[in-house]
Amino acid sequence: MSYQPNRPTIRPIEPADEARWRELFRAYREFYKLPASEVVVDRVWTWLNDPSHETHGLVAVLGTAVSGIAHYRKFARPSTGTTGLWLDDLFTDPDARGQGLGRALIDQLTQNARENDLSVVRWITADDNHPAQKLYDSIARTTNWVTYDATL
């Protein structure tokens, strides 16, 4: 995607993005009240830079600043015999919100999914994350599925 003033550029994450990515990923984890852990931050950065790992990343660049991140991976859908794209994490700098970064990241993932003949782009969000839900409701539909986590 070419640079256009006031419009985000979406591109794959690059090694030069490390410092800014770390800031945004730490802020994402803090937003969801996850415990601070440089072990997790280091591990995910390693995943994103390992071409053989299932997890991939995009960044949203506004002007010259990385202002948003998205982590995603393919997943098998045995019930439909297809493969989908799972959006694990989406976060934008609070100072850059309202400028279309989240929408642009999801649009890029949707385009990638179409180009790769995938069946769906799917994600979850917290039930109290109303600002994100407003965006999500405008571009996708909610499902009737309830999510469970078995504690290990």
From TrEMBL:
**EC number from the UniProt entry:** 2.3.-.-
Pfam families attached to this UniProt entry: Acetyltransf_1
Q: Which InterPro entries match?
A: Acyl_CoA_acyltransferase (IPR016181), Bact_Acetyltransf (IPR050832), GNAT_dom (IPR000182)
For this protein, the record's PROSITE patterns field holds: GNAT (PS51186)
- Keyword Acyltransferase assigned to the entry: answer is yes
Q: Does the keyword Acyltransferase apply?
A: yes
What keywords are annotated for this sequence in UniProt? Acyltransferase, Transferase
Q: Which residues form the N-acetyltransferase domain?
A: 8-152
What are this entry's molecular-function GO terms?
Answer: acyltransferase activity
Q: Broadest EC class? A: transferase
How is this protein named in the record? GNAT family N-acetyltransferase
